[in-house]
Amino acid sequence: MHADNRQYTWQRKGDFSSLRQWWDHGKTEIRLLCQQHTLNVTQDIIRSMKDLESDIVELETISETTGDRGYIEILKEKKMALANLLDVKVQGALVRSRFLNTNEMDAPTSFFFGLEKKNGQR
Which span out of 53-57, 104-108, 113-117 was modeled with the highest average pLDDT? Predict the structure, then answer.
């Protein structure tokens, strides 16, 4: 699918009046593709977490009502898988937080550059 998108974008290069316009369109397509991928991955993780939570509750209920200790190993595996998924979500949140902090640190710099430009034009 991704190779098809690249080839399609490359073939449409002549449809644009300038290379810059084509490149801007390509960047927009890449951004949309990344957003769609992120949405799909997020939905998969959420679905997996809900399934694991349901399985854990069900296994705990069965284990408590029957007294069968055979479910304990499966229960441990399910809890470990859920913990791993939660860890993935936390790591993603940390990366996004660092990225936002970096952008915010650059914001005043852009503001001051704008002021310098404005003062230089006077």
Answer: 53-57
